[in-house]
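CO-FOLDING WORKSHEET

Operator: S.A.
Ligand of interest: calcium ion
Run index: 104
Mode: holo prediction, single chain
Checklist:
[x] sequence pasted
[x] SMILES validated
[ ] output reviewed
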Amino acid sequence: MVEIPVVFPKTGVYRVTIDGQHDRPGPVIFNVLIDGVRAGQVYFSDNDGSWGQRTVQIAVAQPGLHTMTIAFDNDFYDQNLVDAGQDGDRNALIDRVEVVPVGS
Ligand SMILES: [Ca+2]
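OUTPUT RECEIVED:
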């Protein structure tokens, strides 16, 4: 889980872009929360270890400082699969998060 303080200059819709890894076994699911309330969800589900971008639009009702949380809620680990050399460990890797107002 990553918590990022974000200042939203005005009320409106913002586009959140996450650069993340399609770790195996997919999908890697991220919930995007604003002040603890879920505002969106993105899937990194290519299941091939590659990196990519996913976007979600969120509505911000109150301008000012808010806490954005990127939550990884479907962590997975299976020792038997790992021991067998298979995909038994799903992890979350994020390189970058971008927040841009829509329509400006
Ligand atoms: Ca894991």
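REVIEW:
The chain has one domain: 2-101.
The pocket of calcium ion is lined by residues 75-77, 89-91 (CB under 6 Å).
[x] output reviewed
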